[in-house]
Structures are given as C-alpha cells and as structure tokens.
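User: structure tokens for this one?
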Amino acid sequence: MKHKFEYLESSLEQIQRDNLLRRLRYGKIKGSEIVFRNKTFLNLCSNDYLGIPPSKIQNSQMQSSSRLVSGNTEEYEKLEKRLASHKSQKRSLIFPTGYMANLGVISSIIGKKDTILSDELNHASIIEASKLSGAKITIYNHNHMEDLRAKLKDDSKRRFIITEGIFSMDGDFAKLKEIIELAEKHDAILILDDAHGDFVMGRDGKGTANHFQVSKKIDVYISSLSKGLGSFGGYVASNNQVVDFCINKSKSFIYTSALPSSLIKYSVDRINLDKKKYRKRLESNRNRFVKGLKSSGFNIESKTHIIPIIIGNEKTAMEFGKFIFKKGLFAQPIRYPTVKKNRARLRISITSWLSNKQIDYATEILEKAAKKYKVI
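Assistant:
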C-alpha cells in the first residue's frame, strides 16, 4: 500500500534535483554575526538594516485574543498615531506582520470589479493578496513606464497600482515620480509597499516616497516594523476610510491574536529614538562595500543597501554559497520561485552592524568565489 504522503516525497525529490530544496538552519544572531553549531559567521543577509542595539523588552501579559476583542491596549494607540505622523497620513493600523498587512489591506479594499496593476517583481505577499482580492490582475514589466501606461487604459471602474518602494531582491528603487504621474492622469489609486525603505531612506527615515519628495502623493502605505526599525509587526497608513474599512473587513486583522503590548511599546521606543547616526553608518558601509565589489570586477547596479550578486544557474549558486560559508560568510543563495529561473543570486543586505574590517573581508572572499565560479 502506498503511503498517504508519497506524493509529497516525490515532489520533494524533484525539488532537490532542480537544486531548489530549502532547509532550515538554527542559529543565534549576535549583532553583525550569526552562530551555527558554535561556529561564527559574518551575517550578510539580515534585514536589520539600521542595526539599532536591542534594549530590554519589559515583560507584560501576553495577548490572548484579537484586537477587536480584548487585545487592543493603549500602547497600540500611541504607536499608530506615531506611524500615521511618520507617513504624513491621517491614520495607521498595526498588523502582526508585514505579510499579513499586505494580505489584509489589499484583499479587503480591492474588489472583483477592480483591476490591479502590479510590478512583475513585487513581493509574494502582494501577489497572494492580489489573488485573494478577486480583482483582475495585470502585471507590468518591472519599472517599465510605457508598459504601465499602456495597461492603465483598462476600462475597469477602479484601478490600483501596487509597487514596492525598494525591491527586495534587486535592491532598485521604484520610479515613483513617473508612477505617480500616471496614477494621477488615469485616476488610479497608488499602494506603496515600503518595507525595505521605511526608517532607512528619506528625511528622518520617513521612507522611499519621502526620499523622492512625493510623500503626500501616496494613497496607501503598507510597511514593516521588523526591518529598518528592528522590531516586529506590519502596518498600513492611509486615510480614515481605508483604516476603518480594514478594521471591519480585513480578515488577517480581525481573526488573529494581537501582538503582545510589550512588543508594541518596544516599537514606540525605537521609532522615537534618534536614528540619524545609524542611517549615516549604513550609508557609509554600503558605499564601502560597493566600492570594494566594483574594484573586484563586479557589476553592481543597486543604489540601495540591498545588493544582489547575480549568479544565474541554481546549482552554481548553491556551490557559491557553500564556498563562502566555509570561509565564514553567511549569505543565503536565493533561487526560484523567489526569483526567476536561472536568475539565482546572493542577496547581500548591508547593515550598520558591520565594521570596515568585516566589509573588506567579505569583499575579498566574494571576489575569490566569483573568480572560482566565473561570475566575474
């Protein structure tokens, strides 16, 4: 008799043959480093971009219900007011994660008679949320404004343009000024996922739209508290109607337990912290790293703290990752379906945790690996 889950085993074997099998490693993070089985590695794939040293989280009662029942503490109100001000919006609403924020907001405020125009490199949470909405989904070529212009001629009653501010795998900026011009011309609603630019880019870390001086032109912001801020959670910032509608219709908000109030207070403390020196250090680290890579022969196009090293073949990417791992560098090879097939890469994310010595060592090892595997 066949085992009930034999079909899963055969699928896993195929995934492994395609060099796409993923496995979990259990480690301990210590600033710029990560420890696996008592061996220390330089961590080059953290999203804790600003590297703000952790402070002690004050113990308090863990939440055991949703915010609409008894999980909505006063700390939430403080943080949501602060986040609304941070994004120059009327209101904000906290979700347990950034992924759940995208699922909840997009699937609730967009309906079956609407059209979504989504950049082809948008995050998986945006893709899944768009499917849940039931709307017509039109993918436009990455940052290709003529393609977006042509596809905005759709005759749907409502059209929504959704883009990331900084794309999580390529590290490039969305062409926000051009997108806004098209949105205004075609009366489209613009949703910006700013998870990788928030608290890092712009004046006082207000994000990617602020960096391009178009903050007030964004209709709906969705973002994360777990990257630049180094805390936990996600949020939406917009007008009163959007927030009230999410409170009443967003399933990933309504039907889940609230985050512990201790984590919310932790976020309040971190958002109120002066983070200028951390942003300055991050910029310095990024510039040093890119300069080192370019001098080694790498073709680096990213203008942000996310720096992909494109390898191409999935098997080669895995071998590349193993080589640098043996030399004390930890940077996970990113493969399909996170990126397109034969576009496998190391996604390097620079943080302010890194020292000059660590950056120089990393570029040295990456150059050796690139020459060994003919990447440069």
